[in-house]
Amino acid sequence: xxxxxxxxxxxxxxxVLLFLLVFPLLMPYEALxxxxxVFGLYxxxxxxxxxxxGLLSFGHAxxxxxxxxxxxxxxxxxxxPWPVAVLVGVAASALxxxxxxxxxxxxxxxxxxxxxxxxxxxxxYAFYKAEHWTGGENGLRGVRVDPWEFAGFRLDFxxxxxxxYVLFLFVAVALWLVSRILASPFGAVMExxxxxxxxxxxxxxxxxxxxxxxxxxxxxICGLAGALRAMHLSxxxxxxxxxxxxxxxxxxxxxxxxxxxxGPFVGAALFLYLEDxxxxxxxxxxxxxxVIFMLFxxxxxxxxxxxxxxxxxxxxxxxxxxxxxxxxxxxxPAPAREVAP
Length: 341
What we know:
Elements: H1 2-10, H2 12-26, H3 30-50, H4 61-76, H5 82-104, H6 109-129, H7 131-134, E1 148-150, E2 153-155, H8 160-183, H9 185-195, H10 197-202, H11 207-233, H12 243-256, H13 263-279, H14 285-299, H15 304-315
Antiparallel strand pairs: 1-2
Helix pairs in contact: 2-3, 2-8, 3-8, 3-11, 3-12, 3-13, 4-5, 4-6, 4-11, 5-6, 5-11, 8-9, 8-11, 9-11, 12-13, 13-14
């Protein structure tokens, strides 16, 4: 058992991708699987900033929405092919992340969170008022993804299974990139900043520049998730930029386990599956999901996946990594480096 866990830890990207390959077979319908895939990537981008660097943002919907709108505008108004439009969406989110990050990293703790929330609301109203380009309150419609032929293969997005596996390829590249970042010396710098940014600065690291770089990388990954969502829905709803969408990223990370590689996908699956089930039972689904979320936080403070990793460490008698310190100066249960994805 211990050797199996070690093997999975060394090949965590392959393990996650193998699971995601069969994931549509476990879901009641493909659209839900695609939603979980997209929002799981969104949570991964947020987790890079929050779980691994200790910076709690309340404005990450700005990057998800910007990626969606930039991709949609590139397709609808500029007539670009969707692969190029996806790159436009990622680039636009990364640029916005550089601007917001440059302003936000000057603050700490709850002030950082409030600044990101305020700047994200500015982005929300900017897109809301640009009706000619974004459709305003009605959202951007007509985001058509034409069939694309590549190397003799025809990719038709009207087929839900084809759509899932095309988006899966983008997610696979993003997860590989995140894994490489976390395994690099820069990944160790991120965790050092999370543990104690003053000590990291005393060790000679440029904390401000590192925070800004993480912020841009996080924004780019969330922008990719937004671009994939636009292609999935064929529209870009204005609620992509809403602060409640930022809250969803926080909930998904906490549910799955912040600071873990696979936790965001577990959190996204739990949140969206619960939403799908409860909405069929009652119109007050937010109340029910909120109560369930509180129970999970109370009994699984490390998140579902984080708690599972903790139990594996305990049973295999592997030393527990020191608890990280959250942005609010209080001890937080985020692990430093997980032994499994």
